[in-house]
Amino acid sequence: MDETDDLSGAAGFGSGQGGEGGELPALPDWLAARLQRVLQGLLGRGGTGMPEGGPGGDPVVPPGVPIPGGLIPEWEIKRIRDAILKDIVGGIFLPEAGISIVGVELTQAIQFFNFDKLSSGAGTDNSVPLVAGKDLLVRVFVASTFGIGAAADTVNGRIVVGGKTLQSLNGPIAPLPSSQLRRSQLNHSLNFRVPAALCHGNRTIKISVFDARPRNPYIDVYGPSKPKLARASRNVVASFQDVPPIRLRGFLVNYTGGGLNIAAPTGNAFIDTVMRFLPMFPTHGYDFGPCEVMSWSDDMSIASGNKNSGWDSLINNLLTTRSASSIRAVSIGLLPPNLAGTLGSSQRGIGNWGVAISAQDDTRALSHEIGHAFGMLHLNDGMAAGPYDTAYPTYATFPFASIGEFGVNVQRMTLFNPNTTRDFMSYFDATDVPFPAATWISPYFYRDLMDTVIVNDGTGDLVLKVVLIVKILSFRMHRDGRVELLPSYTVEVPAPDDHRPRSEVMIDVRGADGEVIRSHRCHAPNPYQDPDGPWLDYHEVLPWSDDVTALTFVRHGKELDTHEVDRHKPRVQLAPLHRAERDGDDLARVEWNLEDGDAQSHALVRYSNDDGRTWTALASGIADGRYLSRLHDLPGGERCRFEVIVSSGLASTSVRTEAFAVPVKPPKAHLVSPRDGERFAQGAPVHFAGGGYSPDHGMCDAADAVWTSSLQGVLGTGAQLIRDDLLPGRHRITLTVADDARGEASASVTIRIVERGEGEGHCAD
Predict the structure, then answer these.
(1) How far apart are CA 176 and CA 466, in angstroms?
(2) Which of 671, 682, 672, 670 is nearest to 764 (CA)?
(3) Which of 233, 295, 604, 684 is most buried, by the most CB atoms less than 10 A from its CB?
(4) CA distance 556 to 536
(5) Is the distance from CB of 122 to CB of 395 less than 8 angstroms?
(6) How far is Cα 191 from Cα 134, in angstroms, rounded to an integer?
(7) How far is CA 523 from CA 212, 375, 500, 532, 558, in A?
(8) pLDDT exceeds 50 at position 526
(9) Spatial distance between the Cα atoms of 247 and 270, rounded to a whole number of angstroms
């Protein structure tokens, strides 16, 4: 016989030949010889190299179809051997070689799952809650099982969710024994991405995995045209929790300090920057409020906590503006790209409760600052400044500040290993990168952020419905006890329920006779400032009335400084509102004159589109008596007004414009990703991000955002979508959003999908 006829070698029959990949071990010589004779007799040798009939007399091959050289695939020989062996040892149970689902992980960013005993084990498997409306990754771990029969070389699968059948992202893959499967390898599991539109309520996920071996056209000892391939299935239930979107307001900074004039980022750049780290956060999206362009000239090259630092003054400005608004949101101060590098500053961001500041595209810094905006503290990693979160867990034997579990960016299918990845509230991975490289979010902060967003409806703090007259008070307490008042204003707003940590500083509010009518415990200062430094900045909202005559500042029970309320309020003359059209923009200039009062007076400007029932603060700390507003970015109405509040010390005066009309804006389509002209390799995931927005109506419902391709028609709906099945060629991608009047708005880009090998080096990753 030639080497193809030596069936003992091909089938592993001979003595001393061990089994491999879950097959039977070597057989005794007497049994191997017997099987050899039976197998040769069954196969025979004829003109076609095959007998004319299979089991039950069924034809094995179509008549007249030769098998070149009489070759029989090795895996078929193994299957024939195993069938014969079952007949010989009849009555003894020998399981078929097969596959088994040994674990199913459900993750949207981070998840407890100790399948391979190499994770933290700090929580029950799949116990991190799932967020409704957010893409879900289902990782199905498939193991090869011991038994007779040809083991599966590759496996593939599909899942059914909400009546939709979804194919695996990476199949077919090679199954391994359960002991060799690892979470650290994305291709050790069959991976399925469940679109956000299907992630609601309780969903049963029906999982089917199967031997991906192609059907052999020549021989089938188990029956004609019906190969017996291994299969396995399992059902799991995913429960999704409703989490509100995070409400954001953008303040786009035109930097004019140091003789520079660096243009402010655009609104689309703002959306693009914050969308990049959305896969890490426990929410399905953002709800964007009006954006304002603001000029800023204070020195940003000086680090926070040092004299005349522009970081400290900017965060105080945004804290004041935020507190003076009726509708709360997290205020984002977006600086021009790489401003810190341009100025030679080591500081790239700053954040405090409700406010986050960083540069365009510096997603690593901005995600960290948004953590501060929701009350998260630094981790004591040896680099970050205090105060620290002392409750952060130590996850197994991983380094301190490790994320503790395997994280995944479901959009980009990037895996984060707890051995090398630290939590985003540490100072690791501090480089300016568009996507975090060595940081991600831990289960600890994922749950913390989720709970906080739910409690405060994504705004950064709770707001009571009772409208009060309050003093928005900012002050700087020096080490020697001297208190310096920063721009502060008396306004009417819904009172906030401020749940920041408390400090050792108190304010005694004094009445007409100098008696203390109430005391106010101040909250923790800006966490970036050195508690032992020359000063600390505080921001408080105090109930206010005309009975207040003075504020006394107390630290550790000791009175340090007192500021009296000037009974002579500033007198302000408001000029007529001036409106103009410029480059399609509806501009309004508000001007005022200070008739008498302190030369150091400053002003806060607010806007209302409902005749003063609610207010949006646009800017604070204005010293030159004028403000230019882009009405195109503000909600419209028939009775709109501006309010100017001028303060001198603790005394304030407010004046309002006459009512005027501003057009109501229909939604516009904002297409953030992909970018025009991008190229992608065939089969690579393409991330679609965007939506409809109007200053009057906010973000459109996700279901009203429809994505279409000029080559493939409708691709899907939602603010985010991922497709990895786009056909090669040039696609005109269009995002269409519906408005309340049944109209539509759209935006389009052109991308190209290139076949594998066709200039892949130039494709987006």
Answers:
(1) 62
(2) 682
(3) 604
(4) 15
(5) yes
(6) 16
(7) 61, 12, 6, 17, 17
(8) yes
(9) 13
Distance CA 652, CA 471 (A): 9
Q: What is the pLDDT of residue 86?
A: 57
Distance between CA 64 and CA 56 in Å, rounded?
Answer: 20
- Residue 741 and residue 666 in contact, taking contact as beta carbons nearer than 8 Å: yes
Distances (CA, A) of 325 to 134, 319, 411, 671: 30, 10, 35, 29
7 pLDDT above the threshold of 50: no
Put residue 223 in one of left, alpha, beta given phi > 0 → left and psi -120 to 50 → alpha: left
| Measured CA angle at 355 (ends 616, 404), to 5 deg | 140
pTM assigned to the model: 0.82
pLDDT of residue 85: 59
CA distance 392 to 343: 35
- Residue 78 in this model has a pLDDT that exceeds 80: no
CA distance 279 to 273: 12
pLDDT for the residue numbered 222: 41
C-alpha count within 13 angstroms, C-beta hemisphere, residue 236? 17
**The tokens of 352 are what?**
């405090």
pLDDT reading at 1 higher than 70: no
Nearest to 586 by CA among 537, 548, 546, 640: 640
Distance CA 366, CA 250 (A): 12
Q: Which residues, listed in sequence order, are joined to residue 754 by a DSSP beta bridge? A: 681
Phi, psi angle pair for 70, to nearest 5°:
65, 20
With b for 16 or more beta-carbon neighbours within 10 A and e for fewer, the 650-672 pattern comes to bbbbbbebeeeebebbbbbbbbb
Non-local CB neighbours of 139 within 8 Å, separated by 6+ positions: 103, 104, 105, 107, 183, 189, 190, 191
Instruction: Please report where in the chains the tokens 């508690």 appear, as a residue.
Output: 531
For residues 161 and 152, is the Cβ–Cβ distance under 8 A? no
Contact 120, 112 (CB under 8 A): yes
List pLDDT tens digits, range 732-759. Answer: 999 999 866 557 889 999 999 998 765 5
Q: What is the pLDDT of residue 656?
A: 96
- Residue 101's CB is within 10 A of a number of other CB atoms, namely 18
| Average predicted confidence (pLDDT) for the chain | 83
pLDDT in tens, 382-433: 888 888 999 999 999 999 999 999 999 998 889 999 999 999 999 886 555 5
pLDDT tens, residue by residue, 455-495: 888 887 766 667 889 999 999 999 999 999 999 999 998 87
Of 149, 360, 138, nearest in space to 255 by CA: 360
Q: β-strands 231-241, 202-211: how paired?
A: antiparallel
pLDDT of residue 575: 94
382: Cβ contacts below 8 Å, ≥ 6 apart: none
Side chain identity at residue 517, one-letter code: I
Does residue 232 sit in helix, strand or coil? strand
Whole-number Å distance between alpha carbons of 559 and 288: 43
Among 618, 626, 633, 627, residue whose Cα is nearest residue 586? 633
Is-contact 169 413, C-beta < 8 A?
Answer: yes
Helical segments of 350-481, H only? 363-373, 443-455
DSSP H or E segment with residue 699: strand 698-699
Q: Max alpha carbon distance in the chain (Å)?
A: 119
